[in-house]
Amino acid sequence: MLVKNLLPAFVAIGSAAAQSGTCSISGGTTTINSQADATGLASCKTVRGSVVIGRNAGPSIDLSGPGEITGDLKVVDNGIIETLQSSDLATIGGKFQLKNATKLTSVNMAKLTSAKEIEWDTITNIESVTLGPLNKVDDIRISITSLRNLDALDLGNVANLKLDNNARLSKFSSNMRTLSKNLVLASNGIGGIGLEVELPNLVWAVELDINNVTTFSVPSLKTVNGSARFGSNFFQSFSAPNLTTTASGDISFIGNAKLTNATFPKLEAIAGGLTIANNTLLDELTGFPKLKSIGGAVLLRGNFESVELPALDDVKGTFDASSSADISKSCEVFDKLAPQGQGGNGAIQGGYDCTSNNTQANEDTDGSTSGDGGNGGNGGDKDNGAAGLALNTALFAVIGLVGFAVAL
Ligand SMILES: *[C@@H]1O[C@H](CO)[C@@H](O)[C@H](O)[C@H]1NC(C)=O
Ligand SMILES: *[C@@H]1O[C@H](CO)[C@@H](O)[C@H](O)[C@H]1NC(C)=O
Ligand SMILES: *[C@@H]1O[C@H](CO)[C@@H](O)[C@H](O)[C@H]1NC(C)=O
Ligand SMILES: *[C@@H]1O[C@H](CO)[C@@H](O)[C@H](O)[C@H]1NC(C)=O
Ligand SMILES: *[C@@H]1O[C@H](CO)[C@@H](O)[C@H](O)[C@H]1NC(C)=O
Ligand SMILES: *[C@@H]1O[C@H](CO)[C@@H](O)[C@H](O)[C@H]1NC(C)=O
Ligand SMILES: *[C@@H]1O[C@H](CO)[C@@H](O)[C@H](O)[C@H]1NC(C)=O
Hints:
InterPro entries: CWI-Assembly_Regulator, Rcpt_L-dom_sf. This is GPI-anchored cell wall organization protein-domain-containing protein. This protein is mainly β. It has one domain. Helix content is 8%, strand content 38%. It contains four helices and 34 strands. β2, α2 and β3 form a beta-alpha-beta unit. The protein is elongated, with a radius of gyration of 27 Å. Bound molecules: 2-acetamido-2-deoxy-beta-D-glucopyranose (NAG) (7 copies).
């Protein structure tokens, strides 16, 4: 049946005519329901169109023969397939999708080096993936898999990379140099808290949205073109030793429960805002020695004992620092930068507030709330930090609004 759907247009390349065939699939998509169907494609060197492995195909499908599929290769909602292989496939012109194939344990395509897009989602029994390795791919999303490593990928430049809910993935180490859209990491590793990330060659990235990682090493990172957000990570220490600027976005650290040290020794300018909130062990904010200008708002909330931004001389938005501890010495320094209407030199152009002894410092981000006295008699008691553990979704809403107001 399948062969009838193929319109082989044999191209005279070399002597093996069958191996030189370009097969155009009428209707654009062919569905493989059995190994016999797969074998029917074996004489095609190039398959023009997409190949879909049907829901009932398997348990083993060998697609050897074609070196290229110009469209997609998809396995979707197949509860039978266990192994998928091809000894010849080098290029997938479209998407390589493996979605909801929960018996799939092995993918072996040792020549595959190029695909436009990878989407692997809900392949919860996968044990081994062998690719070329894949080194040419724009967009990658790997979610809800049992992959233990990503050795099948050898990325140089990539647009989007999203890794989430891969429960056995404990390490991601890549030579990637640029990331032209988004890197999103969330809930990987055992219990969603185990991913170690090493990107030694990453020089610039547009958006970084980094959650639930145990380490995030970016020694070469020089520019974040958009924003870098770090939420609910498990690292104690974070450093961006070579980062000099965010060209159009924010830097934020929210709810990184173990963070004690965040250092940005070369960072001079943040085009958007700076938000450091609810990192309850971060008692000294001193890691921004060269930070001069902030294009958005500054929101610093936590259990700080000291906040230092010694080079700061230009804040376009509001400046709001509040701690559960006494940061009055730090506030004295920032007071001098306040808007002229508030008695300062005007380096800070939006509203200005700096408060100590605020028991709500980790949960309340309403800049108008005064820290001292707000909590009847408990003002000076740092042991009240536990109050900061209460979930307050308003934190995120308010941060969003501040960022928006500044963007106007
Ligand atoms: C996943 O695939 C299985 C097997 O085909 C199917 O029974 C199930 O409904 C699919 N799940 C979803 C969410 O589509
Ligand atoms: C950091 O930046 C400097 C100056 O641009 C460069 O010479 C150095 O190689 C960079 N370090 C890393 C680890 O990339
Ligand atoms: C990001 O910034 C780097 C360094 O300035 C630049 O070379 C690159 O083209 C920028 N990329 C995007 C997508 O803006
Ligand atoms: C993972 O990160 C997200 C977003 O930052 C957060 O909501 C979630 O609680 C974190 N998960 C764990 C296990 O910490
Ligand atoms: C503050 O972070 C802790 C984890 O350290 C989290 O449980 C709590 O929900 C966060 N509070 C807010 C207001 O986000
Ligand atoms: C913080 O981290 C930086 C860079 O990794 C390091 O040089 C510094 O000694 C650390 N500071 C503390 C107090 O641990
Ligand atoms: C903060 O509380 C401590 C201890 O109660 C007190 O000594 C200090 O004066 C307070 N600081 C401010 C700025 O209110």
